[in-house]
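Batch job 17 of 40 flagged for manual review because the log was empty.
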Amino acid sequence: MARRKLRQIRRTGVALGLEKAQERLACLASPVLGADGDVIGSVSLCVRPDDLHTRRQQLIATVREAARRPRRSAGADNAMGW
């Protein structure tokens, strides 16, 4: 199951957790990749579960964009395609 989840995260560029860390809290995270494609950090966002349900695509796009900024400012492309 963990391998399947990691493949999904690599494919989509975002991990979602609904009330896993804390009740009434939904979290999204996206990896920050270095110039060589290795993970050097992450960006996360926590919201109410209702917000995740109503604004899911907007929140995913926000987290992905925030994770891409360090690479873009360093002149690197996003090799993962997201």
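Reviewer: the log was empty due to a logging misconfiguration, but the result itself is present. Residues 2-73 form a domain with the Beta-Lactamase fold (CATH 3.30.450.40). Unflagging and moving on to job 18.
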